[in-house]
Please model this.
Amino acid sequence: MNMHNGAAAAEPKPAGGRRTRRRLRLAGGLAPYLWLAPSLLLIILVTIFPIFELFSTALSKVSLSGVKKGYVGLQNFSNVLRDPVFWGVLKNTLIWTVGVVGISTVLSLGIAQLLNQEFPGRRLVRSALIVPWAVSLIITSVIWRWILDYHYGALNLILQKLHLIDQNIYWLASPATSFPAMIGVGIFVTIPFTSFLFLAGLQAIPGELYESAGVDGANGWSKFVHVTLPMLRQPLMISTVLNTIYVFNSFPIIWSMTKGEPVNQTDTIITYLYKLAFVAHKMGDAAAVSVISFLLLLLFSVAYIGLVMRRE
Amino acid sequence: MQRTLRRNKALVTAAAYALLAVLVFPYLVMLLVAFKSKAEVYSIPPTFLPINWTLSNFVDIWSKVPLADYLLNTLTISGGATVLTLLCAIPAGYVLARMRFAGKRFYLYLIVVTQMFSPIVLLVGLFREIQWFGLMDSVWGLVLTNAAFNQAFAVWILSGYFATIPYELEQAAWLDGCTKWQALRRVTLPLALPGIITTVIFVFIAAWNEFAVALTFITTETNKPLTVGIYAFFGMYDVQWQYVFATSLVAIVPVVILFLCIEKYLISGLTAGGVKH
Model:
């Protein structure tokens, strides 16, 4: 996405004179493709091929044991689209993705600003911010599941001690509490990457910009709106796209905390399709759901790339 | 600005420490439970601190589950995926940063598209392919998938980093009689070391932490990586939390240390890859 920027910046300069330029042109024949070949091979083998396989499965009748039994057109898709569960799951996915990405972005903007200030112990806090990023998502989610435990969890214990509740709460039993709790965990693990990206962006902003804004009488907030935000435009776009893709595709949090229960009420598309494929063994339906979710992400990405291209 | 800063300094510090508390809290809970006996874990009313600190969980886990196998598998997957990723991504990142060629844009789109597929969306297709290769239930299947799914990110960081290294340095080396390959090896690669280290650690950690593909493709207990292995302690009716968290600690400590090591590269790596000056 950004690579052509970097590449354009390093476009060979004609400084080396005619000789270098001729070498470059000679090298421009088959060579680039040879350099690219290993990467291309790996990508084709492990992602492009399964994509074909996925589309062909989505259009086939598949037996319970996973054997394809011929072309059935869009029947798998109509099975899926006629199922009210799918629409509930789609709604959850939307809330999940927008909630986690949106709230994480806003909080990370604040955190990046905070960690860009001087204060005692800044190194420690920055290091701590790395921890949820480094730790496996599955482990972090399992810990939160324990914290939210009805009998023994730390959250109920704390709330009781603070006299905020009299009765323990079954956090993970009802979607009304479990889904927001999982969104919270999603935010918890999304913040580190996003904050570091913004922090990198903030450090690239020349201090003079703030000084001259100060001379013009800008206060803290208007400096943020008129200097910081425009300068963070690129990290903001990168984080939004990458986070949307990661969060949409996220599996371990929901899988380890509720498994989408009760009755698919906390499933997102990803956990739903996993269950279709590997629990219910409906490979055809699962492939159809995969294709639908791919198309959703593709739509989003094309819109995004369009936006970036227009800007350039 | 300076004056506002000073006035707000106490506020900034307080907010930062509140953030610190939230970030550390879950891992502190994990740490404490790992030092409790089962009876204490399931005592009512619950307590934060262990009453009797015990190390027995850390001893028990090695015999309760094939933890040494889990660890070795995770190391193989992460190490193998990292090597394979670099072998493919270094030449690709280099050529993207240095040369113009037909189809460059196509390749860029291609890796953006692969970035959009999580392994889970592809699991259905991948499942058949892994079966076809005979790599079902094998760590090598996971090496392959992890390397492929980290390819886009690795190429992205590396090409961004190569682009920051002046081409003139390499051209000077050519004039001194180096071949292209020698110039790359002796001039560019050493200079790109921070970018390469960042990539190595990112890929290593991503593979170390991967869960969904391993969950689907590995069935034999002794072939499981750590992330899937801890599920052995989740019984039908109760969970051995003290073991879950002791094992988690074993899984977490190496990656957290690795990550802390690259903290200083992290910002420059993200800057080079993502943010144009």
